[in-house]
Every structure is written in C-alpha cells, then in structure tokens.
Design a protein that fits this description.
The protein has 222 residues and is an alpha/beta fold. Helix content is 37%, strand content 15%. The protein has a domain of 151 residues: 3-Layer(aba) Sandwich (Arginase, Chain A). The N and C termini lie far apart (41 Å).
C-alpha cells in the first residue's frame, strides 16, 4: 500500500542504528519496526517482509569489524529470508526455532536437514517443532540453540524476535504464556553477548506489547 516502501526503508535504517549502538558500546539495542523482515531474502519478499532488518543489522556488525555474528530466530515462522542470505557463509551462524515447515509457512525452507551450503555448510541450524508444542519442550530447544551459538563464539547476537509463539496468537501454534517471555529474555542474556533484537511476527495484538516488554525485562534482569 502507499507508504510501504518508506516504512520498510526506515525500518532497515532503524536496524542499522541499533547495530551502530552496539558498535558504540551498548550491551543491547532493539529495532522496534514495522513491517518485519525475516522472510525477505536476497531477491525476494514475502510474509509481510520487504527488507530483512535482522540480516542488514548482522551485516552491519560485520562491516564494523566483528568477525563472527550469531542469529537466533525465535519467531513461530522460519526466517527463510535470513537463511537464504547467509546460506553459503561461515561468518554468520543462523539458528531458528519454529513451527514445522511440513505444515507451517514458509514451507519451502526451515527443515531440519538444511545445514548451509558451500563455505556455509554447518553454519545453519533449523530446529522445527510441531504445532501445539508446550513451553517446556520449546525452552529445552532454546537451550540447545543457545549452547550451539555459544560454541560458535560470536562477538554479537541478532535476535529476530517473533512473539507469535504466544498461546493466544491467531495464526500460530505454540503454547508460550506471557510470563514465559521473562524466562526467554533471561536465557538469551545468559550468553553474555551484545544483543540486537529486531521485531518480527506477533498477531495477538492486545498482548503483543506485554510479551515484547517481558522478553526485554527478562533480558535486562540477568
């Protein structure tokens, strides 16, 4: 619609500003933008995404001298665009926990047997979970993802933060409750990395703000 490109462009600029904040010494930054970005690839858009804010932020961190950057996508839907952008690279490790693409959007990427290609082989990890997954199982998967990223030893972490893992989300299927997001933020902070959050999906509008703030409060409390 009218204004979409301006919003997408300025959202990407916000992600760059967040990366600049980390470069200047901030321990965390949040790009609060719409539209989201993680379904946008190197030459495609989709899933309400036009420019990939998380990927732009990660590349910006690399351009400023960081040798390794981790990406932890916790949106209900796989970040297919982010995977596609960094698929053949070993300097940016992409990890995603998401609904099983056998039944959930985006369908064509996000399967567990996709590990990256070429130089990037072994630097992409997909952790799909079935619809209806409860918090305990999801959180155990998060711990696995965090350990793998810790082993990679990145100098910064980018988190495409989707809040559509919420039990009340109308188009998704995980069972996280609002209070669980404190624990999510706390666990991410335990990595001890400069962390940049980009805002991704979340369609339970009345609870979206609460859930977002709970992640950030949990992160801050570590």
């Amino acid at each position: 619609m009218s204004g979409t490109w301006t919003a997408a462009r300025e959202g990407a600029a916000c992600a760059v500003a967040a990366a600049d904040a980390l470069h200047q010494g901030e321990t965390a930054a949040v790009a609060l933008t719409r539209p989201p970005g993680h379904h946008a690839g190197p030459a495609f858009m989709g899933g309400y995404c036009f420019l990939n804010n998380a990927a732009i932020a990660a590349q910006n961190l690399r351009d400023k001298g960081m040798q390794r950057v981790g990406i932890l996508d916790i949106d209900y839907h796989h970040g297919n665009g982010t995977q596609a952008i960094f698929d053949a690279r070993a300097d940016i490790y992409t990890v995603s926990i998401h609904g099983d693409p056998q039944t959930e959007y985006p369908f064509f990427l996000g399967h567990a047997d996709e590990y990256g290609t070429g130089d990037g082989e072994g630097f992409n990890l997909n952790l799909p979970l079935p619809k209806g997954t409860e918090f305990e199982t999801w959180y155990a998967t998060l711990q696995k993802a965090l350990q793998i990223l810790s082993d990679f030893a990145p100098q910064a972490l980018v988190v495409p933060l989707g809040l559509d893992t919420y039990e009340g989300d109308p188009i998704s299927g995980f069972k996280l409750k609002s209070h669980h997001y404190f624990q999510v933020g706390h666990a991410i902070a335990a990595l001890g990395l400069p962390t940049l959050f980009t805002l991704e999906g979340g369609y339970a509008v009345a609870d979206f703000g609460v859930n977002t703030v709970n992640v950030l409060e949990g992160f801050k409390s570590h």
